[in-house]
Amino acid sequence: MAPAEAAARLAVTVSYAAEPGREWQWAVTLPAGATVAQAIAASGFAAQFGGLDSYAVGVGIYGVKCDPEHALHDGDRVEIYRPLVFDPKESRRRRAAHKER
Q1: Where are the domains of the chain?
Q2: Residue 45 CA to its chain's centroid (Å)
Q3: CB–CB of 76/28 below 8 Å?
Q4: Which residues of 78-91 are buried (b: 16+ CB within 10 A; e: fewer)?
Q5: Which CATH code for domain 3-100?
Q6: CA atoms of 45 and 19, how far apart (whole Å)
Q7: How many whole angstroms from its chain centre is CA 16?
Q8: Would you tell me how many other CB atoms lie within 10 Å of the CB of residue 59?
Q9: Are 44 and 15 spatial neighbours (Cβ–Cβ below 8 Å)?
């Protein structure tokens, strides 16, 4: 690949925590100016997790939520979020109550 062609490409990773302790990741190479939505489509997420809406809970880059049309930079990690199993505030309350006993 010529240097100009390499500069016009982005290498990104699409990541999804399928369940606690198991993460799915897929590396994709896209043209410069590609979006989060294009990275998710190129990753094959829909085929791997058929029926799962990748945008239901949200998507982000390195823990910062963004919209699907957000432009990517080389080296970005696109994250597909899943719903919380329980409310973190309620978890803290329960742990605090348990320690008081």
Answers
A1: 3-100
A2: 10
A3: no
A4: bbbbbeeeeeeeee
A5: 3.10.20.30
A6: 15
A7: 5
A8: 22
A9: no
